[in-house]
Amino acid sequence: MSATQEQISINAPIRHDWPLPEIEALFALPFNDLLFKAQTVHRAYFDPNEIQISSLLSIKTGSCSEDCGYCPQSARYDSDLNPEALLPVDAVLEAAQAAKEQGASRFCMGAAWRSPKDRDIERVVQMVQGVKALGMETCVTLGMLTDSQTQALKAGGLDYYNHNLDTSEEYYSEVITTRTYRDRLDTLSRVRDAGINVCCGGIVGMGESAADRAKLLQELANLPKHPESVPINMLVQVEGTPLFGLEALDPLVFVKTIAVARILMPKSRVRLSAGRKDMSDEMQALCFLAGANSIFYGDKLLTTENPMTNHDQWLFQRLGVHSGGSSYA
Ligand code: SAM
Ligand code: DTB
Ligand code: SF4
Predict the structure, then answer these.
(1) Is the CB of 201 inside a 6 Å radius of any atom of ligand 2?
(2) Of 64, 106, 213, 262, which one is the catalytic site residue?
(3) CA–centroid distance, residue 143 to ligand 3 (Å)
(4) Which terminal CB of the chain, N or C, has fewer other CB atoms within 10 Å?
C-alpha cells in the first residue's frame, strides 16, 4: 500500500456506529464532493477498475406466499409469470456452466419461498456443491432459514447467503405485511453466526423517503459486521404488482445512494443490482465512479430482463474496467 493509500485508509476506518444525521449530511453534500469522497474511500480498499460479476438464476419461480409489494413472484399479484417448481440439479449446473463461460465468477440461485422446507435444502446443497465444483463462488437466496438449515448450507460449502433488508424498518411494513424486519435480521444473524458470507442490501425507488434510504444504509452499516456484498437495487416495476406505476426515482439520488453505501461500508462489494436495463451507460458509469464494484450479469435477473451480456462487455471495454475480485480484497 502506498503512503497516500495508507493515509486514506486511516481516514476511512471501518465503523459500525453511524448516527442518522451523519448519514443524512453525506446525502446533503454537493454531488461532486460526495462522489469525490466515495471514490477516495473506494481507492483506499479496491482496484477502482475491477468489477466483480455475478449471474442469477431463478431455481424456483413464482407462487410465493409472501406479499412483498415489489415482487412479481408473489402468488397474490397477477404479474403474468409462469410458476416453476424447484429445478433439477442438472439444469442448474448447465446454467452455471454457461454463466461461467460468459465470465461470471459467482452464481446466485434464487427461490421464491417465504422459507425453504428441509427436503428443499438437500437439493439446494447438491446445487451448491455442483456449482463449486465448476470453480465458481456460490450464493443462494431462499427466504428465512432455521439454524439447522443454515448449518446444512454451510456444511455444503455455500459461500454467500443473500437476504435483503430492502428498506427502513418503518417503511418495510408499508411494503410487506407477511413478515417483519426482525425476521429478516434474525435470519441474517443466523447466517453470520454459521460463518457464511452475507449479501444484504435493499431496493430504492419504492416510494420511500430520503430518510428511509438513509435508515436502510444505517441498518446495514451498523450491523456487527458489514455484509461482504451490498446489492443496491433500483425497483424494477412489474405490471400487476402494487408498486407498478410509481414515479421513477431521480437517477442522481440512486447514484448518491451508492456513494453513501461505499463511504459507510468501505470494504464491502457494493453491487449495482436490479434496474440496470433502464439505466443509461452514463448513469452506470457514474455508479462505478461512486464506488459500485459488482454487477448482476446475464440477460436475465430472476424473472425480469437485464442488459445483454454483449452490451455489458462493450460497456466494460469503453470504461476500461475488467472483471475479477471477490469480497474483502
Ligand atoms: N424469496 C426470498 C426473499 O424474499 O428473501 C428470495 C428471493 S427474492 C426475489 C430476493 C430479493 O429480490 C428481494 O429481497 C428483493 O430485494 C429483490 N427483488 C424482488 N423483486 C424486485 C424488483 N421488482 N425490483 C428490485 N428488486 C427486487
Ligand atoms: C438482489 O439484491 N437482487 C436480485 C438478487 N438479490 C436475488 C434479485 C432482483 C430481482 C429483480 C426482479 C426479478 O427479476 O424478478
Ligand atoms: Fe416471495 Fe421473495 Fe418475492 Fe417476497 S421477494 S414475494 S418472499 S419471492
Answers:
(1) yes
(2) 64
(3) 8
(4) N
> How many whole angstroms separate alpha carbon 22 and alpha carbon 173?
25
Q: Give the single-character DSSP code of 247.
A: P
Q: Is the pLDDT of residue 10 over 90?
A: no
- Residue 4 C-alpha cell reads as 497516500
What angle, 0 to 180 degrees and rounded to 10, lies between the N-to-C axes of helices 31-45 and 3-11? 120
- Taking the C-alpha atoms of residue 301 and residue 305, their distance in angstroms, rounded to an integer, is 6
Q: Contact, 170 vs 207, CB < 8 A?
A: no
How many residues can be counted in the chain? Answer: 329
> Is the distance from the beta carbon of residue 231 to the nearest atom of ligand 2 less than 6 Å?
yes
C-alpha cell at 151: 448449518
What is the Cα–Cα distance from 301 to 294, expressed in whole angstroms? 14
Distance, CA of 305 to CA of 212 (rounded, Å): 27
Considering the candidates 190, 199, 200, 262, report the single residue annotated as catalytic. 199
Q: H or E element: which one contains 51?
A: strand 50-60
Alpha helices in 85-180 (DSSP H): 89-102, 118-133, 147-155, 169-175
Q: Please, are residues 226 and 195 in contact by the beta-carbon 8 Å criterion?
A: no
For residue 80, what pLDDT is reported? 86
Answer yes or no: 108 catalytic. yes
Average pLDDT score, the chain: 94
Q: What is the pLDDT of residues 242-265, one digit of tens each?
A: 999 999 999 999 999 999 999 999
| Residue nearest atom 21 in ligand 1 by C-alpha distance | 71
Q: Which amino acid would we find at residue 262?
A: R
With the C-alpha atoms ordered 260, 323, 235, 227, is the resulting torsion angle positive or negative? negative
Q: Which of 106, 108, 213, 262 is catalytic?
A: 108
Catalytic (active site) residue 287:
no
Between 224 and 6, name the one with better pLDDT: 224
